[in-house]
Amino acid sequence: MEDQAENLREIMRKQASLQEKLVKSKEIKRSRIITVTSGKGGVGKTNIAVNIAIAYARRGKKVTVMDADLGMGNVHVILNFIPKFSLYHVMRKQKSMKEILTETEYGISIVAGASGISELANLSPDERQNFINEINSLGDAEIIIIDTSAGVSNNVLDFITVADDAIIVATPDPTSITDAYGVVKIIATKYESLNIDIKLVVNQVKSAASAKRIADRMTHIAGQFLNLKMEYLGFIYEDLAVANAVHELKPFMVTSPKCKASLCIQHIVERMEKTDIKPNGGLSLFKKFFN
Ligand SMILES: Nc1ncnc2c1ncn2[C@@H]1O[C@H](COP(=O)(O)OP(=O)(O)OP(=O)(O)O)[C@@H](O)[C@H]1O
Ligand SMILES: [Mg+2]
Q1: What is the 211 CA–ligand 1 centroid distance (Å)?
Q2: Whole-structure pTM value
Q3: 255-281: per-residue pLDDT in tens?
Q4: What is d(CA 178, CA 192) in angstroms, rounded to the nearest whole number?
Q5: 189 — phi, psi (to 5°)?
Q6: How far is the CA of 118 from the centre of ligand 2 (A)?
Q7: Quick one: which ligand is closest to 179's CA?
Q8: Which residue among 10, 52, 102, 153 is buried most deeply as judged by most CB within 10 Å?
């Protein structure tokens, strides 16, 4: 009789502790990881990543941009600073990712990419795993935006798989659309089970209607042939203020906060804010998948 009562108490204790843990795990805040990628190069990924980051920061969020273009990183170029340390040092295990984090005058912090070091463009599986683990150390940031190189190297795919949201950037240029579709196809076939939110941004458009036409076609094809739900996140007007800002080595959200492109970026961030991240997405899902 005594034993039975003790057993019951033990079960109750365990249950209470489990419940406590569950409540705690829900309270733990986790970074939202947004990866910006494209099929074709030069479609505006870096500008979009940096300016979305600034828009988030203006909404009071703590944001880090990671320049994951391991061959030709240039986030620091459009922000006009020369990083002392970059991902090169992280890869060489000389520095941790947290140690190379640089605060900028725009209220966002940057993990600088490596420039022109081609050996980094193709990492071994171990190196990639190490790299992804390092992203964990950026957990202070509420939003981590990863700017990738174009195309579908294994590195880029890793950065897509750790993402809560993968933003695919395309322009009205037909080759950019075909290449964007190529990336989406690989994500759909290779990472079927990952359940990442794929979001499309159409950049450098002349009208909202033309962007919508492109998006409708792409989302329809992705749904019909790949069984993939791709959300149309928004568009960005072709705007001279963007190219001018790049020449000035400043983000266009700073040089021209009211220009058409800046308003589009704000709209995109407002839309992102309306969707919650999945509790088991991002890095936690990545770990589950690879372990
Ligand atoms: N909305 C826009 N309106 C006008 N010009 C734009 C716009 N978006 C991008 N550009 C032009 O395209 C150029 C390339 O942009 P960006 O460097 O962001 O592209 P990317 O996709 O990151 O390129 P890469 O693949 O080389 O990394 C910019 O320097 C700018 O001149
Ligand atoms: Mg770029």
Answers
A1: 17
A2: 0.87
A3: 999 999 999 999 999 999 998 776 666
A4: 20
A5: -85, -35
A6: 15
A7: 1
A8: 52
